[in-house]
Structure prediction request, 349 residues.
Amino acid sequence: MKRFFIFSGFILCLVSFRQDHQHELWPIPELKLFPSLPDNFKVPTKAQVKLGRFLFYDPILSADSTFSCSSCHQQEYAFADGEMRFSRGISGKLMSRNTPPLFNLIWYPSFFWDGRAESLAEQALHPVRHPDEMNLNWTLAEKKVLRSKRYQELFNEAYGDLPIDSNLICQALAAFQSVLFSQNSKYDKVLRGEAYFSALEYQGFQIANLQSKGDCQQCHSTDANALATNLSFSNNGLNAALHSAAYPDSGKGRSNGLDQSGWFKVPSLRNLLFTAPYMHDGRFKTLEELIDFYSESVQEPYNIDSKMQYAHRGGVHLSSQEKKALLAFLKTLTDSSFIRDTSFANPYN
Ligand code: HEC
Ligand code: HEC
Prediction:
């Protein structure tokens, strides 16, 4: 009898240990000079992140089980899609916009190049049912997931008895994506006092943040904001459109009396070495081309963002030495540990 009590005590202990472990929160890394965590952000549990990671890498969410989120969002490219200007999904058709990288996402008020999804969970609904991406209707997606014993366990650990439906699947995908923090580049180390910029890098940092030089800080400030984006939308003068129909892609378009045709999300300057080609349409293959654009080739469409102060003279006009310095600085925002972090890697490998 005594033995039985000891034994059942041991089992109880194990069970409660397991449950504590399930409720353990994901550890948030040091985020120097990042904005504080948004009020609506609830730190997910480790079990929720684990479930989301399995789903992110699992082709189960596509019609013929050949495509996963990670088919287009690959860790080695900071979750962008490598050299592909446009990714191909399940139909073989090219997407119409460049696949964006995924990191430091929780601060964005909306998602997609045109901001049409208001949360990460809402965003995740789209690629699964999009005929050219994963082409699976959500009723079938729920059925496929429900049939899997592994997912029954993972959902139970992450969300207890809540019903497994599209909403919960998207919550889990959002949980995984919400902890993709990239905060360990040389730039971050300099902010934390663990490294120094070279003279050239420091010159580039100043060029990026000085109104009289690169003037990038209007939209991608790096001296006040480690996200390197103002989280907003802008028209940075890629096209010389005279009216809204002249844009090849209308971007945010017109709504609420605003004409934001040709306005797109301001991307971060982080991890650029992994995310070429650049811009919503992947038009620039290299950072040199991109810097030349901001320096000499800015267009002046009718509804350009007034923050592009030098558009009337075609750009900010940097010397070739200044361009080199700016490039050297941009490279310091490269976070190699992010693309190697095994806690974000394919769990099926
Ligand atoms: C076929 C390639 C492809 C697949 C598969 C895919 N995506 Fe994407 N993803 C894209 C493209 C292209 C965009 C940009 C589309 C746009 O802005 O209109 C995008 C945008 C996003 C964004 C918005 C990022 C931002 O900065 O606004 C998130 C988040 C995202 N995808 C997550 C996912 C998740 C989660 C899955 C799986 C359920 C997934 N993607 C599957 C190609 C893909
Ligand atoms: C007025 C706002 C604004 C200013 C100023 C600005 N940008 Fe941008 N930047 C944007 C927008 C908007 C995009 C995306 C445009 C698109 O794809 O249509 C962008 C895209 C980029 C990208 C591409 C990132 C990617 O992942 O594709 C880089 C790199 C970049 N900008 C660097 C700079 C640099 C360097 C400067 C200063 C020389 C600068 N920007 C000035 C708004 C701005």
Observations:
- Residues 80 and 101 are 4 Å apart (CA to CA).
- The chain has a mean pLDDT of 94.
- Residues 61, 67, 69, 71-73, 87, 89, 95, 97, 99-100, 102, 111-113, 120, 123-124, 127-128, 133-134, 173, 177, 265 surround heme C (ligand 1) (CB under 6 Å).
- The two ends are 46 Å apart (CA to CA).
